Amino acid sequence: MKIGYFDCIGGASGDMLLGALIDAGASQDAVLKAISSLNLKNWKVDFKRTQRGGISAIKATVTAEKRQTARPANEMLKLIENASLNRSLKKQVSTILGRLIEVEAQIHGVSAKDVHLHELGGDDTLIDIVGVIAGVENLGLDTIRVSPLPMARGWIKSAHGPLPLPAPATLALLKGVPIQAMELEAELVTPTGAVLLTSLASEYGSYPKMTLSQIGYGAGQRQFPFPNVVRLLIGETTAETDGLLTEWITILETNIDDLNPQVYDHLIKQLFELNALDVTITPLSMKKNRPGIALSVLCKSSQSDVLIDCIFTETTTLGIRRHEIERVSLPRHVVSVNTPFGQVHVKMTHWKGKNRASPEYEDCRRIAAENNVPLIDVMHAARESALIEIEEHPLR
Questions:
Q1: Which of 50, 53, 121, 192 is the most buried (most CB within 10 A)?
Q2: Environment class of residue 234 by beta-carbon count within 10 Å: exposed (0-12), middle (13-18) or buried (19+)?
Q3: This prediction's pTM
């Protein structure tokens, strides 16, 4: 499992996170292509190497048109809806933006649909959010951990007049997140940085156990007595028990007793399209003797918010349980083998000196239909071919 650890040494903002992702190896082309899909006018993102406190880092400079008036929240959501982003990325960005809008609504005491964003309503906010999510996706990070976030006092200008630091939106977004005081008068964590980190993080704390492979530094705008950078560490979890892989994933659960059964097929397809690892439904008896369904979804922690949104949208449920669980699994790889009926993909694992082969069902089903032979014959042939293949060419 590929882990990303954001070490927020000098705070966190959207451009700092973006710089760290690029420095750690995210494709500039992939990030800029995602931003381009927003169809904004007169924008630019420059990535240049600079220094903060003697540390070499990438400074992401976002240039966009300045708005003279506040922007309606639904206008920003509409821009995301009309963007040609892939479905998973679009869902994540919409969810993150929705959290930002909800927090602003609570602070100003209005409904989310009536929110008008001032400082956060600019194109630069959209560019930061889309760029960071595209960078995380490009790096293939399975889970993200975040360090405690540094907080400093002071004041910041806003359309409503001077506001105390940390900004009210930042504090609202950081509920339940570990923070630490810094003796400084400056904005260290911006609302955009806060909403991105809290949406991406599966956990907070010190360094995760991993084999370190990549390091990136993202520079902030100012020089402080300490390096004004975000540090991104990327690595792989290592097997801890006799070749087993251990990883932290999320399980989403809900019980439903009032949904048309025809919807479940559509729902499950939607969840898999949004990168769910597994989806199961189990019959159960609920209150008042109603027959119901227990829906269970396994996913990467970074995808849980997107899948929660899908479940609430596509079902009648009013609540979802979310748990972080440790999964222990066998390392696996997929091979393509020839059988008397055709080519089949087979999932291979190895445990305690024995090879195991699991033919892909869809391949076998299709080939059985094309050749008018029993499905079990195709599966048996594929399994035997795969075991012979792995004996002749064992994994290194």
A1: 192
A2: buried
A3: 0.66
